[in-house]
């Protein structure tokens, strides 16, 4: 939303929210608890939904689908939210172009396209003009699955329909979307995104980096505990890590431990670089896949200008990882396939990179982000594929207090209900 008294930098007639989600036949908490206990993959969803409707491609929908009725000549702002748990999505509307104008709460330079690629945790603002022959057109979410991990390759369909008199029984047109495994189209969409970078909405990309961090992102395996049957690969347990650390959640919240100076809850030794350098995206079969299961935090000074380079690895079922940081939006200054090289720095976009809070790290590729650490606190950073986050593809960033009063972590409210062991 624009600031009070300001206008949008684009025009539209109506706005609507579209939420893509996954539908399970069982309680999702029970599903993940069982998977973590056995070390195997969690059950897949049985359907995708648009605003709660699975669409007429599923027998369980009774032919129902989300319908959006439009007036020819009008422009609609669709606020699209991927609230799904484990699948990235392509999206399109048959015969209609899309204009992406915002992402994760920040404006973008308008990008005209006939499809989107949106990961779990991402939001996009998209303009659609109803400028085709009045009729009924499918709008479709189709998964992007660039891995050999189990996945749900179903699609969900809504209907973009014009008002007025026409043959409503005519067969609906389906949009042409990239195939399930089309890594190049997924990447080609993402690398076109640019910030608006106007006088009213400037890009403030950090250029004097004081903290440089590289994080290797991996899917791992852990040995099966003694006297237990495990259902992961080769009778092991699924795991995941950042810089070979598989995050273990403590019984006391890290924010509570940090604020109250409680010792023994976490370690302060999350490394700024992968502990071992190797061909991250090459043949890793000779390397062990077990990570260190521990609770580590990464401490950053207030007002540091931070660059984090996420490096995908070829361990396990390599795939695109939507990396998300709480407490901050960040600029995606670079992205590419293969191993990161210092020569890429000269190719960074520091003029108008997208300002987002989630970035899709390409399969066996890299992504570089920048932000200014001006929001003190304890912030979770994780892959937004829930199975990976549950397996330990997480880390905690602690941004230290600044010197001034408004640069310090606020105290907990007096009426905050207890949720864990207290130091008092």
TrEMBL record:
Residues 402-411 have a biased composition (Basic residues). One of its GO terms (cellular component) is apoplast. CDD domains: CuRO_2_LCC_plant, CuRO_3_LCC_plant. Its cofactor is Cu cation. GO terms for biological process: lignin catabolic process. It catalyses: 4 hydroquinone + O2 = 4 benzosemiquinone + 2 H2O. Its EC number is 1.10.3.2. Its main location: secreted. It is found in: Secreted, Extracellular space, Apoplast. Belongs to the multicopper oxidase family. This is laccase.
């Amino acid at each position: 939303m624009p600031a009070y008294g300001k206008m949008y930098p684009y025009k539209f007639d109506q706005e609507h929210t579209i939420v893509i989600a996954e539908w399970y036949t069982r309680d999702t908490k029970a599903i993940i608890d069982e998977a973590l206990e056995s070390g195997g993959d969690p059950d897949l969803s049985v359907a995708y939904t648009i605003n709660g409707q699975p669409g007429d491609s599923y027998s369980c929908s009774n032919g129902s689908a989300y319908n959006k009725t439009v007036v020819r000549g009008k422009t609609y702002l669709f606020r699209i939210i991927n609230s799904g748990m484990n699948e990235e999505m392509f999206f399109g509307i048959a015969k209609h172009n899309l204009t992406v104008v915002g992402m994760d709460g920040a404006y973008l330079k308008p990008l005209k396209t006939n499809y989107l690629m949106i990961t779990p945790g991402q939001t996009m603002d998209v303009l659609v003009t109803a400028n085709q022959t009045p009729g009924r057109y499918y709008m479709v979410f189709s998964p992007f699955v660039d891995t050999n991990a189990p996945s749900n390759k179903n699609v969900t369909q809504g209907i973009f329909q014009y008002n007025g008199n026409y043959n409503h029984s005519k067969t609906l047109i389906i949009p042409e979307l990239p195939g399930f495994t089309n890594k190049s189209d997924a990447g080609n969409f993402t690398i076109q995104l640019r910030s608006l970078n106007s006088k009213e909405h400037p890009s403030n990309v950090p250029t004097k980096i004081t903290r440089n961090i590289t994080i290797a992102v991996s899917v791992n395996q852990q040995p099966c505990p003694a006297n237990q049957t495990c259902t992961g690969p080769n009778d092991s347990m699924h795991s995941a890590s950042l810089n070979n650390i598989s995050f273990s959640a403590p019984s006391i919240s890290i924010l509570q431990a940090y604020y109250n100076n409680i010792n023994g809850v976490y370690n302060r030794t999350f490394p700024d670089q992968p502990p071992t350098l190797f061909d991250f995206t090459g043949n890793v079969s000779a390397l062990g896949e077990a990570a260190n299961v521990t609770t580590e935090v990464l401490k950053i000074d207030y007002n540091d200008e931070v660059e984090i380079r996420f490096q995908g690895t070829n361990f396990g079922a390599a795939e695109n990882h939507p990396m998300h940081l709480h407490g901050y939006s960040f600029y995606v200054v670079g992205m590419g396939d293969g191993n990161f090289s210092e020569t890429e720095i000269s190719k960074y976009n520091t003029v108008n990179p997208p300002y987002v809070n989630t970035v899709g790290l390409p399969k066996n590729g890299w992504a570089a982000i920048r932000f200014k650490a001006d929001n003190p606190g304890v912030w979770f950073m994780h892959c937004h594929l829930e199975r990976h986050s549950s397996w330990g593809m997480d880390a905690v960033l602690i941004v230290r207090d600044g010197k001034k009063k408004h640069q310090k972590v606020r105290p907990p409210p007096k009426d905050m209900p207890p949720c864990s062991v207290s130091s008092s």
